[in-house]
Amino acid sequence: LLCLCCRAAAERLRYTIPEELARGSLVGPLARDLGLSPDELRKLQLSEDKQYFTVSHTDGNLYVKERLDREELCGESASCSISFEALVHNPLNVFHVQVDIQDVNDNMPRFLQDNFHLEINEFTSPGARFYLGMAEDSDLGSNSLQSYELEDNAYFAVEAKESEDGSKSAELVLRRALDREREQNLRLILTALDGGDPPRSGTAQLWINVTDANDNPPVFAQDRYRTSLREDTPPGSTVLNISASDADSGTNAHITYGFGKMPAKVLQKFLVDAERGTITLQEPLDFEDTRAFSLAVEARDGGGLVAHCKVEVEVLDVNDNAPEVTLTSVSSPVPEDAPAGTVVALLKVRDRDSGESGQVTCELSGEAPLSIMESSGGSYKVVTASALDREQAAEHRVTVVARDRGSPALSSSTELVLEVSDVNDNAPVFEEAEYSAYVSENNAVGALVLRVSARDLDAGANGRVSYWLAGGSAGAAGAAPLVSVEARSGAVYAQRSLDYEQCREFSVAVRAQDGGTPARSSTATVRVFVLDQNDNAPRVLWPAPAAGAAPGSPPVPPAFEVVPRSAEAGYLVAKVVAVDADAGRNAWLSYELVQASEPALFRLGLHSGEVRTARAVSDRDAAKQRLVALVKDHGQPALSATATLHVVLADSLHQALPELSERPAGADAPTELQFYLVLALALLSALFLLSVALAVLARLRRA
């Protein structure tokens, strides 16, 4: 706690230096007094309207940069200081520094005119006073004007008359009666002295002309007049009416009014009517420039006697200056995870008016999670009022409105733009938690299955999403190698041709991960359904096709069915049984009788595959019947298979055996006949060709 208190106390520093120090003069060890580290010293900067000072980033000392004239900076103010802020960025710290400027005796007293001309009647009584005006000295305190001195003479002395505001004017006092016959003119040196060490002085010459008698000087109704004017009083307005009287008569009683010796800027502001004594305003007033005027008014009669009075004009402030808002520092961009209360901007507000017109309040206009807090010395800081979210607003624009308490109130504004930088606080989000894809079997390797997409609200690398497979379903062995995912696009491709009969569906997990640090990710499930194609022909289970035995052995006789000759129509002979490995319409089977020894004797069920007698068996029907059934699916294109069924018409198995024993020989007869026919045709063709060849040779030999 002690360290924190010391730190807080050091945040406001005060240095005292005399004015007119040379450029580069040391003001104080700023960095050491603030307790800054070398890293903080490199980030130190000053925020003053005019750079009177500079700080060295080598030793941390504060030096004079510009000429410091206390009279130019603060005018007649009793105290003079320059205040500014020392800023240290990252993090932002503000230190208030005040440099008091001490007055030195660098200005000598100066009369407003080098020569004073006075006409004094010889009958003027000793003790009469003559106003000579006031010398100016821009210094303050003991360095300001202190006294007046007059060259040694027999008639006059000079006295300093101090007014209520502390100013000292010179009055010439007649000590001894004049005698125009002895001395008509006097030339004296008037000296004004300040209290410096060593003192400085200024001089003026007094030219005194001794005139004949004018018994009564003019007399003002008041020695001092006071009035006040609003600073927005238009030029030409009447300030005050003054009047003086003279007990003499004739030309000695005719009074004319005029101003005494005053600064030029005062003479430019006011005008006095020589005959009526009406003082009018010539130029606009400015309270912020001059708050009061002291006018020296003279009343001169026709005999040359002069009376003096003072008119004090107080300038009343009006609210004619709007507040001035200056942004001294802005920390932009601000990371979106900055805690509430983070200082993002510093600004300074100044109103040149006084009183309530110079009291300023600041507020923020606009929807933003920011607030403004008063600091000190007319400074304000803008801080975050709540957590920031770049995904909701990447930048905040607010208007800083400064409004004074005058009537009517004046205001000014400036715009503050604050950018919010991104942090990786959002994981990628898939458009769907679970994707479904349908792929026909026998697909090409590398075929596109589907495309997954995840969106990350962050920016830059924090929002750049890449994809990969995170695993497959437990029920699909080897599911992960079936597909692959492209890292950038999220496209899922088939790694090999799929077979519906082996795998009808499988699922894989796809992970989306951003490029932030640390990275954030999410997972979605992709379910792939394999669509069946008609790539399997029906397979006949019964009757079983005749399979060949071992090489060299006789063929195995096919299966047969015995139908009694007494069978009626609709008698069930057999049932053709077939299966199809495909699914859906591709596995729907239909049966058709394509070949029969007696087509009218048998019929085949279209969907059941049942072979039944179409009519009653007669004695005329052959004992041996051969049926060929076609089994066909409903795919596009349709695939089929055939089944051969042998039927023996016999009342018992004993009667059917002779027919079965003759069947192998009879079955081979057509084959042998075909062989002999082909052999005979070949021999005849060979004999014909031989005959033609012999005939051609005989012709050739005869020729």
UniProtKB/TrEMBL annotation:
Keywords, comma-separated and alphabetical: Calcium, Cell adhesion, Cell membrane, Glycoprotein, Membrane, Repeat, Signal, Transmembrane, Transmembrane helix
GO molecular function, a single term: calcium ion binding
Give the record's GO CC terms.
Answer: plasma membrane
Q: Which InterPro entries match?
A: Cadherin-like_dom, Cadherin-like_sf, Cadherin_CS, Cadherin_N, Protocadherin/Cadherin-CA
Output one GO BP term: homophilic cell adhesion via plasma membrane adhesion molecules
Keyword Disulfide bond listed? The answer is no
Record's bilayer topology term? Single-pass type I membrane protein
Q: Where is the major localization of this protein?
A: membrane
Q: Where in the cell is it found?
A: Cell membrane
Name all Cadherin domain ranges: 9-111, 112-220, 221-325, 326-430, 431-540, 563-660
**Which Pfam family, any one of them, does this sequence belong to?**
Cadherin_2
Q: Where are the transmembrane segments?
A: 675-698
The record's section on PANTHER family has: CADHERIN-87A, PROTOCADHERIN GAMMA-B3-RELATED
State the protein's purpose: Potential calcium-dependent cell-adhesion protein. May be involved in the establishment and maintenance of specific neuronal connections in the brain.
Protein known as: PCDGH protein
Q: Which organism is it from?
A: Sakesphorus luctuosus
Query: Lineage from the top down?
Result: Eukaryota, Metazoa, Chordata, Craniata, Vertebrata
